[in-house]
Each structure stands twice: as structure tokens, then as C-alpha cells.
Amino acid sequence: MKQTLVPGQLTLAQLRQLWTGERVQVVLDAACRAGIRASAALVKGATEGEAPVYGVNTGFGKLASTRIARKDLAVLQLKLLRSHAVGVGTPMSERVVRLILLLKATSLARGYSGVREEVVDALLGLHNAGLTPVIPCQGSVGASGDLAPLAHLCLPLIGEGEVFYKGERMAADEGLRRAGLQAITLGAKEGLALINGTQVSTALAIDALLATDRLFEAAVIAGALTLDAARGSDGPFDARIHAVRGQPGQIDCAAAYRALAVGSAIRKSHLENDDRVQDPYCLRCQPQVMGACLDQMRYAARVLVIEANAVTDNPLVFDGLMVSGGNFHAEPVALVADALAVAIAEIGAIAERRIAMLVDTVVSRLPPFLTPDPGLNSGFMIVHVTAAALASENKSLAHPASVDSLPTSANQEDHVSMATFAARRLAQMLSNSGHVVAIELLAAAQGIEFLRPLASSPALEGVLRLVRSVSPAMMEDRSLARDMEAVHHLVASGDIARALDAEMPELHALRLANLPAGTAALA
Q: What phi, psi does 310 have (nearest 5°)?
């Protein structure tokens, strides 16, 4: 399968397709090549002049005032990659690294960075050959670019560093040989252009954003199932309530909850003679809480689509001149990663409250801890404790990373974004909230067992069948650890939403829209 990438015009739909792991061969739109050649020619001209040009014939960071001899310009770029490849920690996932390769290549291909076509083609060559550079996950402060991780990304271009190839970790030169690729020699500014930029932070944030999309959909479905298990009211989802407030995410979420409840015999059974006036907030305020999270996700998507298309190295080539600036500062990514962190934490937090409500017989009017023989059996007592532990952990992880800054490069780089960590920590938060939602699905399914033979809505019965395919009802205590992992896989893979018995436009409306590309995403 082949896909053409237009630099500056990547869409969320394209990013999603590339993210799913399908082996896609990518090619650049031919129209971008003239711009690449023109900017590379300008840099070549700068190497022949006497004027100092940052990163071309000078040192880097605090050493920007140090002039480099013409004979050493190529060596300067080589040493830059080597000296900056000092990351630590476990390797980033191959899924994320593939995104980084593509974002870096398309950014350089916009023709403002002064690199040769050969460099852009070499990045795409790694992707298309299935060679994934090994990038340690720690070591970037998200300003002056993601220097250390991008240096690790680009070392294999010159035959150094390490790669994963066909499931095996190996030296980059060996990987290039097996894949039939050749190392390249860097020219002036090319090392700087390769490691200067926000592509690592952005790819990590996009990875989290797309995973949050799946988590969110599963959480809405789990909440609707819990509403039925607790025999809650669907009155709070009345469209008129949400229309008068006007928050778009809230309006869309309420519509999804209404659609998920259609046809429920459980709901019909307690329309009369139910003495409960109002449900707890974890049921009643689902559209308000989840809708606010959805609005944050949509905001993050708009920012990240723009950043995915951005040129973020320095200096840049404009109208025959090289201009220094600061597009490498990843503050936009840091702020939306922090916004996503809060949304992910809240998705898990309200799900944990619904689990607590289900195991509390006073509120849910289900057997204590969802077991028919409480006392002899503990039922879902400690399963809820696990959910509480995960939700609490997310509260610490949700602390904003962007408010921190630690000066680097002898105080030349005196304010940094911490975007890389801001985005990287989202993976653990997603795992935590994903497990909480999985536990809620198990608890809600268990609650429904006590209401049989009444059925939930046709849509939700499809989800119940999927849950029961990996986890039978628990009428006597057993370890639910494997069941929880199995349902978590259904949440993380997106299978929960696919299990609905009917197509549901109201639920599809919650999925992150395929935003217009580039800066048009703000329109």
C-alpha cells in the first residue's frame, strides 16, 4: 500500500492510518522537490561566504559565536549527531518512531530547512524499509528541539546507532546492509536541521491523542452500561438540558448516551415506582464531565495537526536569507499534552466513581460487591481497590509538566517546555485509565447479571457479549487479573466500540474529526 505525503498538508486521518501499524509505503509529493533544492542551494552558498550563519559555520547553543573553518563544516554536522545522541531509558515504541520519521521528513521537505533531497529520501527510506531507529525515551527538555532523541533517530542515516529490523535489535550499519540501504554523508546544516525540531514531542502526543480517542469511546459505552446496571435515570441526558448550556462536547456526549440507551428493557422496567429522585453525579453528570474532556481532546487535535505540519528547526531559509528564530520551542505541544493529561485522568476518575457506586449496595441496590454470597465471597471489593489505585496514580501524573523549566546550555536556552516528558507520560496515564474503564465494564456486566432476564439496549448487549467472550460472570470468587487484562485489550484496541450491535452516528460523532490540514485546521 502506497501513500503520498504532501508536506504541510498532513491530515489527522493520514496520521491515524500511519499510526495503526499497517505497513504503508510513503512517497513525497513531487511538487515539493523544487523548494527543497532551492533551500539547499542557499545553504551551500552560505558555506562559501564569510558571514557567520548559525549552525552552518558556527558552533551551537552557547558556542554560537565560535566560527568553524570551511574545511570542517561537514565534520561539524557529524560531531553534532554523535555528541547529542545521549538519551537514556527504554526505547520508544516502534509505532511512535515511525511517526517521528515521517514528521521529520515532511517538515524538512517543506523547503525552509536547507537540507538536500537525499536527506529527506533517506528518512523515508528507513520507514519504507521497516528500519526503526532505537531512541531512548528520556533526555529532551522540549526546546532547542528534541535534540537527544532526534540525534538517535538520525544516527542510522550515517550508519551509526542502532535500529530494530524485523523484530531484532542490531547495529545500524548491519540493519542498513540487510535492508539494502546505504549510509549518507551529511552536508552543511543538515545535522542541525535533523535534530532541531519538535517531532519527537509531537509524535508522542499524537500517539497519545489517538489512543485517548479509543479510550474515550470505550468509557462512554462503559458509563452507559453502568447507568443500566444501576437502573439510573436517562432524564439527565435530555437534549434540552444540554442545549441551554451550549457546550459542544457536552451536547454530543448526551446524544451518544441517549442513543446507547434506546431499547433497554432494564430502563423500561423502572420508569415507574422508583423512589430515587436524582442519581449520583457519576451517572447524572456524565455528559458534563465527558463532554469537557472531549472538548479538550478536540482542542489538542487541532494544535497537534498544525504542529505535525510545522517547520520547527532553526535557522530557516526565507527569500534567499537564513533567519534565526525559535520554532523549536515546543510550548504548544507541552500545553496540549498537559490538557490531555487532565482529560485522561478525569476519564478514569469518573469511571472509578461509577465502580465504587456499583459495589455499594446502598446506592446501586445490587448485591454487596456484586457477589450473590457476600462474606464468603469478596466479589469486586479489591477489583475496585485496584481501580482506585490507578485513578489516584493518574492524579499525580496529571500535574502539568509545562510549568517547569530548567535552563540549559549555560543559560543560553533559559526557558524550556518539557513537552517531551509532558507527552511521554501520557502513555502510562492511558494504561491506568484504560484499566479502570476495563474494570468498570466487568463490574457493569456483573451488575447486569443480577437484573436478568431483563436485557439492556440492543447496542449494549453486543458489548456485553464481547466482554463475556473473555470473562464469564463471577458467581464465586476467582482472580480477575487475566479478565481485566483481556478487557483492557478490548478497550485499547478499539474493539469495544466495534462490538455495538448497531451503527450509531451519535457515538461516531465523538471520534476526533478529520481536521483540515496544516494551519487551515484553525478555520
A: -80, 160
Per-residue model confidence (pLDDT) at position 146: 94
Q: Name 25's bridge partners.
A: 2
- The DSSP bridge partners found for residue 26 are 3
Coil, strand or helix at 145: coil
Cell numbers for 494, please give them.
Answer: 478499539
Q: What is the mean pLDDT of each run of 10 residues along the chain (523 residues)?
A: 93 90 87 96 84 78 78 86 95 96 98 96 97 96 92 98 97 98 94 95 98 97 98 95 97 97 91 76 98 97 96 92 91 97 98 98 96 96 98 97 80 82 97 98 98 96 97 97 98 95 87 57 34
With 0.90 as the threshold, say if the pTM is over it: yes
**Residue 125 CB contacts under 8 Å (≥ 6 apart), including other chains:** 181
pLDDT of residue 516: 47
Provide the grid cell at 467.
466482554
Q: How far is CA 476 from CA 265, 290, 360, 372, 469, in A?
A: 27, 34, 18, 8, 18
- For residues 465-480, b (16+ Cβ closer than 10 Å) or e, as one string? ebbeeebeebeeeeeb
Backbone phi, then psi, for 137, in 5-degree steps? -80, -10
Beta-strand pair 25-28/2-5 = parallel
Is residue 165 flagged as an active site residue?
no
Query: Interhelix angle for 248-261 vs 286-308, to 10°?
Result: 120
- DSSP H stretches of helix in 246-380: 248-261, 265-269, 281-284, 286-308, 331-359, 361-364
Return the amino acid letter for 99.
L
- 378 DSSP 8-state letter: -
Gap between the Cα atoms of 246 and 244, Å rounded = 5
Pick the closest to residue 227 from 456, 489, 398 (CA basis).
456
CA distance 361 to 369: 7
The letter for the amino acid at 425 is: R
| Residue among 143, 79, 58, 133 nearest 101 (CA) | 133
Other beta carbons within 10 Å of 488:
20
b/e sequence 173-203, b meaning 16+ C-beta within 10 Å: bebbeebebeebebbbbbbbbbbbbbbbbbb
CA distance 103 to 312: 11
Supply the Cα-derived Rg of the chain in whole angstroms.
26
Half-sphere exposure of 373 (CA within 13 A, CB side): 6
Q: Which three cell numbers stand for residue 114?
A: 536547507
Catalytic site residue from 54, 112, 165, 257: 54
d(CA 361, CA 367): 6
